[in-house]
Specification:
single chain; 451 residues; alpha/beta; Rossmann fold; Four Helix Bundle (Hemerythrin (Met), subunit A); four-stranded antiparallel sheet; 16% strand; globular; binds zinc ion
């Protein structure tokens, strides 16, 4: 079977052709951890999640890398604003990000590197680019020399001089040319910084992604698929390509995959409009299945317009699907029942068509065992578990808030080694009818059915 995916580089749908027959590699730009994730962040994680799940049914090994940006100007500002340390900000929002994504049923990537843990690798990558003649040192900065790389602009299809004219490009004394971008910059005062051949400083944003790809896959390997929101095409991904291609003779990445923006009532989300929808709040009033259906109801390349009706429509859809199956336990994917949905997803990840197919199956599922089976299996491929919808606890926002407060309290106690006190909190949760489970650094909870 062939999988076709729109490639931003060629501006057409193309068959994915991995470098190795049975192994496919994918990188997606992850969060900058300084605030609560909103539905735009959720979309940028759930679209690759569908691709990741689908690729796993086709290839015996899928390597999926998603980074965590834990050093950035926005983080430093947030720490100042909340009057706390940078570590506390990044730890807090990394945990919230992970909890939110797991609340949406998004699978963990194979690798999830943090920038602050990869500084030596990033310095190493920058040194290679300098050595190859594509970067220069100036006033304690290292800059990528865009004029040295002829194909610059290939992804965004912009000409260098046009970009400079129209864009918000800083003209700075340390740049040879305004379009040159920062690979390394000095840290001033007590802002976070690391020792480097160019003085105390920290990496620019673009180099971290390229460096992490090369770190996991090796310099002389081409990445199969690179994803992200389409707001990252320029300059972030354009710069990633330039860096990657100047670090090694191998092409940096073959397939560029971008998801569209999320609008709220046809408007861009912004703090000033007060229309930012947070994943935390959605998880309080809805559940994983409904939220996944809502986020995947629009084709990934189109803008997703979130309205008052989005959740109720998705809830109606999930109800229609789940009411047509008997609650038979099925926990593993069975490829024989996935032929049709695989065909649909193979055509540029067509999730709206996938939901139309599921709705069609649901019409006959009560009477037809094969349809019922295909419905459950196909939903599972989309990360939707029809068995659990009607069992989803119908709990109040107040109880949910209480549970979350207790979980945070317990996690703080455990982190500071106060295990007896943490166990008391566990008992308090148990008294509320909540059981918890700690697994690979994460805590999940559920309402005990018999309480
Ligand atoms: Zn990136």
């Amino acid at each position: 079977m062939t999988i076709k995916l729109y490639n931003t580089l060629s501006r057409k749908k193309e068959i994915i052709r991995p470098q190795k027959e049975d192994l496919i590699t994918m990188y997606v730009c992850g969060p900058t951890v300084y605030s609560h994730p909103h539905i735009g962040n959720a979309r940028a994680a759930i679209v690759p999640d569908i691709l990741f799940r689908f690729l796993q049914t086709k290839y015996s090994q899928v390597i999926y890398i998603r980074n965590i940006t834990d050093v950035d100007d926005k983080i430093i500002e947030a720490a100042e604003k909340e009057n706390t340390s940078i570590d506390k900000i990044t730890n807090k929002y990394t945990e919230i990000y992970k909890n939110n994504m797991s609340g949406l049923g998004i699978l963990d990537p194979t690798y999830e590197p943090k920038v602050t843990e990869k500084i030596p690798n990033i310095i190493n990558s920058i040194e290679k680019i300098i050595k190859n003649g594509n970067a220069y040192v100036s006033e304690s900065h290292v800059l990528f020399n865009t004029k040295s790389y002829d194909s610059y602009g290939q992804l965004s299809r912009k000409k260098l001089d046009e970009m400079i004219d129209g864009a918000r490009v800083d003209v700075a004394s340390y740049k040879k040319y305004p379009g040159d971008f920062i690979l390394w910059k000095p840290s001033i005062g007590d802002s976070p910084g690391w020792k480097s051949p160019w003085g105390k400083g920290r990496p620019g944003w673009h180099i971290e992604c390229t460096s992490m790809v090369k770190d996991v896959l090796g310099d002389d390997t081409t990445l199969d698929i690179h994803g992200g929101g389409n707001d990252l095409i320029f300059p972030h991904h354009e710069n990633e390509i330039a860096q990657g291609n100047c670090m090694s003779k191998k092409n940096y990445c073959n397939h560029w995959f971008h998801n569209g923006i999320v609008l709220v009532d046809k408007k861009k989300m912004s703090k000033s409009l007060g229309n930012v929808i947070l994943v935390n709040n959605l998880l309080k009033k809805s559940n994983k299945n409904i939220l996944r259906a809502a986020l995947l109801s629009t084709h990934y390349r189109q803008p997703l317009n979130w309205t008052k009706k989005t959740l109720s429509n998705a809830s109606g859809l999930i109800q229609r699907l789940s009411s047509s199956i008997e609650h038979e336990k099925q926990e593993t994917l069975d490829s024989t029942a996935l032929d049709e949905i695989s065909d649909i997803l193979s055509d540029d990840l067509n999730t709206p068509e996938a939901f139309r197919y599921l709705t069609g199956l649901a019409k006959h599922a009560k009477r037809n065992k094969n349809d019922r089976y295909a419905l459950m299996q196909s939903s599972m491929l989309l990360g939707i578990d029809l068995n659990h919808t009607t069992e989803e606890p119908d709990i109040t926002d107040e109880l949910r808030d209480k549970i979350e407060t207790l979980l945070t309290k317990r996690s703080k106690l455990r982190n500071s080694g106060q295990y007896d006190e943490a166990d008391t909190v566990r008992q308090e949760l148990s008294d509320l009818g909540v059981s918890i489970e700690d697994s690979s650094g994460k805590t999940t909870w559920k309402i005990d059915a018999d309480k």
